[in-house]
Write a structure and sequence with these properties.
Pfam families: SET. With about 325 residues, the chain is of the alpha+beta class. Helix content is about 35%, strand content about 15%.
Length: about 325
């Protein structure tokens, strides 16, 4: 909009003309401002009425489920942890399970599908290794034995090799449930304990040394022989040659006194086999084994458990509890933790 005015030099002063022009300009400006204000008022929307519509909530979202605040079926806004938690609800990690296919992972975890896949497999691997170690809880297995047991489980992938599992091994589980192990029960039946050798010990005669290290808490072998009553053991002890009479293990089983008769060189139930345990010598100061009594199917079993780490070629020793010559006069209390 153009405003103009003329200044006359004929009929009045210049100042009078300027005042008139200023008054005209102010009048036109006020009119313009009023017009613009009216235009704004006419174009403004009416005031909004208070909403009575309840706030939108996603289907399946509750106060107790904070891991998935996106619409059903969407994984666009999940964190990596929330995505993994969501996947686990449909595909929990198990020993024999398989991870979901990629299409399923994408629908559940979105951009974190690869992260969830790798983490799922990692947790399953850890679970499987722990399962193997627990199977051999109190006795170090050989690599071949671990490999055979893994093959028996049917795990063709996602499992560590036998060598690395053996390297991770250490005694585990409660000592009071050691004989729950199928591995130890088999050793007691077959008497094929590994890592032991009979040797001539200076000043003692025969003894038992180890051919591999044994860890503290590991089961080394059992004391094998015929379980008889204390009275029967005393009779055998009295009628046996002195050099053989020491192979009578008297012990207390609760309130009952019993004896393991191992005075014969060969075990009657294992023809042609000389068991190691009967040759383990005594020491009250240098003992590295301790016997403990167990009951398996109503039968007494005495296991020798390492009470410290034992080095290769070290002799096995345990405290008889009494002088060997008077061993038949007392019995060891073998219930300990």
């Amino acid at each position: 909009m153009l405003f103009c005015f003329c200044v006359s030099f004929h009929s009045g002063s210049i100042s009078t003309s300027l005042r008139c022009a200023q008054s005209c300009w102010e009048g036109r400006g006020s009119a313009l401002m009023m017009t613009m204000s009216q235009m704004r008022d006419s174009s403004s929307p009416p005031l909004a009425e208070p909403s009575t519509t309840p706030p939108m909530t996603w289907s399946g979202c509750t106060s107790s489920d904070q891991s998935d605040h996106t619409p059903t079926g969407s994984a666009a806004y999940l964190t990596d942890q929330a995505a993994y938690d969501k996947l686990l609800r449909s595909y929990p990690v198990t020993l024999d399970g398989v991870p979901p296919k990629r299409s399923k992972r994408v629908s559940l975890a979105g951009q974190y599908e690869r992260y969830c896949y790798d983490r799922w497999r990692s947790e399953q691997l850890e679970l499987r290794v722990q399962h193997v170690l627990e199977h051999f809880a109190r006795r170090l297995p050989s690599e071949s034995r671990v490999k055979a047991w893994i093959e028996k489980q049917g795990w063709s992938s996602n499992i560590s090799d036998a060598a690395s599992i053996v390297q991770q091994w250490k005694p585990s589980g409660g000592i009071d449930v050691a004989m729950n192990s199928a591995v130890l029960q088999k050793f007691c039946r077959t008497q094929r304990w590994k890592g032991l050798s009979v040797a001539e010990i200076e000043g003692k005669g025969r003894g038992v040394v180890v051919t591999r290290p044994f860890a503290w808490g590991e089961v080394v072998c059992d004391y094998h022989g015929k379980v008889v009553s204390r009275q029967e053991g005393l009779v055998t002890h009295a009628t046996t040659a002195e050099q053989e009479s020491g192979y009578m293990f008297f012990y207390n089983s609760g309130q009952v006194a019993r004896c393991i008769d191992a005075h014969e060189e060969e075990c009657p139930c294992h023809p042609g086999m000389c068991t190691f345990d009967r040759l383990i010598n005594h020491s009250s100061k240098k003992a590295n084994l301790r016997p403990r009594l167990y009951s398996v199917d109503g039968k007494d079993v005495i296991l020798f458990i390492a009470i410290r780490n034992i080095k290769v070629q070290e002799e096995l020793l345990f405290d008889y509890g009494v002088n060997r010559k008077s061993f038949a006069g007392e019995g060891l209390d073998l219930v300990w933790l």
